[in-house]
Each structure stands twice: as structure tokens, then as C-alpha cells.
Amino acid sequence: MTPAEALAALRVAEARDGAPNLKQRRAMLLSLAREVKKRAPDIMAVLDAEYEGRAPIETLLADVLLVADAALYVRRNLWLWMRPRRVSVPYPFWPARAREECVPKGVIGIMAPWNYPVQLALLPAIDAIAAGNRVCVKPSEALPRTAALIAEILRAALGDDIALCVQGGAEIGADFAAQRWDHLVFTGSTATGRKIMAAAAPNLTPLTLELGGKCPVLVLPGADLKRAARDILAGKAFNAGQTCVAPDTVLLVGHSKQAFIEACRQTGIGLPETAVINAAQYARLERLMAGASLTPLAEDGHGRRMALRLAEAPPEAPICQEEIFGPILLLREETSLERALAWVASQPAPLAIYLFGADSKEEDLISAAAKGSALIAGRTVEFAGFQALGFGGSGDSGFGRRNGRAGFMEFSHHRARAWHGIFSLSRLFDQPRGKAVERLKNLLAK
After folding, report:
1. Whole-number percent of the chain with pLDDT over 70
2. How many CB atoms lie within 10 A of CB 442?
């Protein structure tokens, strides 16, 4: 099925059946949660096979339980989000009434990446279905068996009248982005995000872009270095650092690189349980490491299991310019928080800024400099799984929000409704206007 055929089929279903009501949406969300959990063994097995080594526990946490729990959370709260919001009316229009209501946009296109292929295909689908839409998913071509499994899950849980899956390579992806969706979601690199935006522009398609960025970690003088090292490496090791919110660069304020390296060695975290996804990504990481001073925290494993490395490099090095997206952590020493913040401000806005050892005054300084990035204290990565917390970027890291109420609002039209009474002061200004209106105009203009 081509993207155009999928869109046409969903348009036909939309015209025939209309938007699902609250009861139907809740039933679909429950069905999707149950189907994802039922297929958990298949999801873990196929991703382990296609990665040639992906930790089943990481797949279970990030691509199964996170999705199922999100669907159930949205299901519990949907009735509240769907309620119209009453708004005030200025007194000259009394006794008019007004409200704002959320109505479906229509058919939502979702382009998912390879790093969390099930999660990043189905989380936007959950938000879109909650808002009463139909969805068409384009999974990553890097994992064809996983893409086929996603198609099976959508068909079993939602049916072809609500959700379809289009599979294929780059040409299909380009065609997908160019379709006249009512909203298009893309998760991936900033460079590809620009291409998606250009493809969607002729149709003026609304977009949600979740892109990348070099997420910085500020380790301040008040931090417990051993605890900070463990919490940072735990996030970096998950999925071998192939996470859009993985820590990328550690800015050490009041701590030496050597002390941090030693603290990292003591954590015992060295070899991620998940492999780098393919040979092309492995070669890209090797290119980034060229010219950098590296401190491996373990021996590389079999196949493409790359050990965690701490890296130091001059600012002009590729590793300092590009998002790493792998098990390499860049280190920088800074003499003060102000200098660290100046460095953060000089970079494209990341999805998140991580803080360790910051007091309330320091957090305020960081908040003022953070632009649209999430500020996360004490851990890394995990906040992206908070069901009620809106997730998204700003600037080069994207725009739009998903998860929970934020996702429901993202995929809804916010429609105005108003009811006018028979009389109101505003009617005094209707034509034909007499001398009384002229006197009233002079009075109002004073």
C-alpha cells in the first residue's frame, strides 16, 4: 500500500463513520495496551534479532510497558480532557455564551525512527487516537521485521478503518511526507527534519518534529561525583546511547576530568547490553571518535556491542559539532557556571539539560538560560517516560508536544463556539447608526 492509498482509505472510513466517540476511543486505547503487552515476547525477540543484540529488558521497558502504560493513562483521563472549556465573554456582548472545544483534526501521519521503533510509532498514535483521529504509521526501513510487527499490532488492536501502516524505504518516506495529512509527526535527526518540513510545506501540513541535539549535563560543585557519574552513565548506557535525550556532553564545574573519569570507572557501568544498530551507524561513531582522546570504560563486546567511552576533543572536532547518538560521552571542564551556561547558549537548543548538584539559585540561573529545553535534575533520560509530562523540543530540537494531555491537545483543533442572545450593548453599533451612536463614540474615545 502506498502512502496515497492509505490516506485515501482512511479518508473513506472517516467520511463513512465519522470520529470515534469517547466510549470508542477508550475501547481502542485499552485494546492497543493489551495487544502490545500480549506481543511483548515477539517485540523483544524481533528487536534483539534485528539489532543483532538488543537487551530484552530495555525493549520491555521502553517499547512495551511504556507504550501500554501510556495508553492506559490516557484512557483514564480522556473524559476530562474532552470536556469543553467555558470562556468569559466581554460585558458589551452579554448575555452571549462561549466555549472552546477540542475536535479531531482528521488523519494523522506518523514517521517513526529506528532507535525506539515501537514506542515512537505508537506513543503519537495513542495521542492522536485519544483526540479522535485516524492514523497512518511509517516505521523505519532500518528494521523491516519490526515494521511488519507494528503493522500486525495496529491491525489487531485498532483495525484498518482506524490505523494503517505503510512500509518501505527512503522513497516511500519522501512520498509519505508529501501527502496532505491533517497533521504530520516526524521523529529523527535535525537534518532529516528540515527535509520533512520542506516536503510538508506545499500542503501547509501542521507538524510535530521531535529532533535531536547535544544534551548537556552540568555537574556543579555541589554534586556527589560518584552518584552523578552512576546516574549519567546509566542513562548513556541505555540502548547504547541511541536515545535523542541521552547525555551528550558533560560540563564539569569545580570538578576535574580525571576525578570524573575515576568516578565513572568505579560505577562498574562499561559495556552496554544493546549493540549499535548497524554497520553504518558503527562507522559513523568511529568517524566521530577520530582525533579525540578516548578513555574506554570496558572492552568492546562481540559484534557491534561498543563499550562506553569518555572523550576529550578540541571544539572544532566532529564529535564536538555533531550529535553523538551512541555510547560516547564528551567531557569539558569549565571554570564557572556562567562559562558553562555561555557554552550551552552558544549551541543549538537541545531537548534536555541535565543538572547535578545545583542549588535553587543555580537552577534559576540555568532556567533563565535554557530557552525551551527541559531541565532535569538528578537523573537523565527517564523523564521522557513520564506519562503526564509533555515532551518536545524547541529550535533545532524540534517543536510541538506529545504525551498525555499535551499530546491530546496537539492533535486536536481548538474550535470556538459562541451563542448570542437577543439583546446586547454591542447591538447599539449596528447599522443604520443614529446620533446617539455618534455621542457614544465621542464618549468612548475620551
Report:
1. 100
2. 9
Domains along the sequence of the chain with CATH: 3-211+396-415 (3.40.605.10), 216-392 (3.40.309.10)
3-state helix, strand, coil in the chain (%, to 5): 50, 15, 35
- CB burial of residue 258 (10 Å; 0-12, 13-18, 19+): exposed
Between CA 118 and CA 140 the distance in angstroms is: 10
User: What is the predicted pLDDT for the residue at 437?
Assistant: 87
Q: Catalytic residue numbers?
A: 210, 244
List the one residue out of 131, 107, 120, 291 whose CA is nearest residue 205: 107
Q: Are β-strands 134-138 and 107-111 bridged in parallel, bridged antiparallel, or unpaired?
A: parallel
User: What is the widest separation between alpha-carbon atoms in the chain?
Assistant: 91
What digits encode the pLDDT tens for the residues 186-227?
A: 999 999 999 999 999 999 999 999 998 899 999 999 999 999
315: preceding bond cis by omega (within 30 degrees): no
How many H-runs (helices) and E-runs (strands) does the chain carry? 17, 16
